[in-house]
User: Fold this.
Amino acid sequence: MLAFTVRRAIQAVGVMIAVGIIAFSMFRFAGDPVNQMVAIDTSAADRAALRHSLGLDDPIPVQFAHYFVNAAQFKFGVSYQFRQPVASLLAERMPATLELAICATVLSMVFGILMGVYSALRRDSLLAKIFQAVSLIGISLPTFLIGILLIYLFAVTLGWLPSFGRGDVVRIGWWTTGLLTVSGLKALIMPSVTLGLFQMTLIMRLVRAEMLEVLRTDYIRFARARGLTTRAIHFGHALKNTLVPVITVAGLQFGSVIAFAIITETVFQWPGMGLLFLQAVQNVDIPIMAAYLLMVSLIFVTINFIVDILYTVVDPRLRATISRPA
Assistant:
């Protein structure tokens, strides 16, 4: 188990180094940053002084070493657009994105598992067919269209929920949250549903398929033959084994929720990292784009590493395979 963990950690570091090379290449070869930071009438001497202060006249290997060392310390340079350190901009926007992603993931996990289990156990009922129809809608419709429809219904027509922004937030140290205010909770409902609907339908269909497969296995028949109750069979045996692949999908989907929150944050003008990245793309703000790429990659790699470890904890067969000598 220790060797497996160390091997996965080394692979994760290798992935981050590869992503760092890509981010550095985008930072270095996507144009001259000096031209975007100075005015047109700036003298050549001032341009050269600025280029020297940024380290752009150093050899490329030296620049990469400096960039990688700074990135390991979460120092990503200065934004061309905001003239502020990129790390502080990301730290300021990160609570909003993580709060939205966590709420969307919890929503999709809870309702997805419940709907999937019910659809598997009562697959011929009317409610199960309604759940299947909802899953088709959630997979088929694009995220921005779902957000626009929700805004039109609940914000424009009914006037129940705000259509943009984060509402009132409470600062706890460096963290800001809207979960402690009424306007913050109202502002969080529609973005969370929009962002989590696709994941909810995906988890529901996965749980339903795995549950139906597990219910046909021999050990479930043996459990029935032993006289176990239906509740014990369904939730003590079948559901427990069904959740093994769900852990992997849910973990990777959490990274996808953070990475693809750009659309949802744009539709609802949610002040998170995704909206900041979109503004950076529009203004060719390379430091923010490169830092966002590294941050999302780090989240993906970390979640993937945690899921691999949890997978070995949940599935004893995998532990036996890992522990078996070659």
About this structure: The beta strands are 170-172, 175-177. Residues 35 and 47 are 8 Å apart (CA to CA). The longest strand covers residues 170-172.
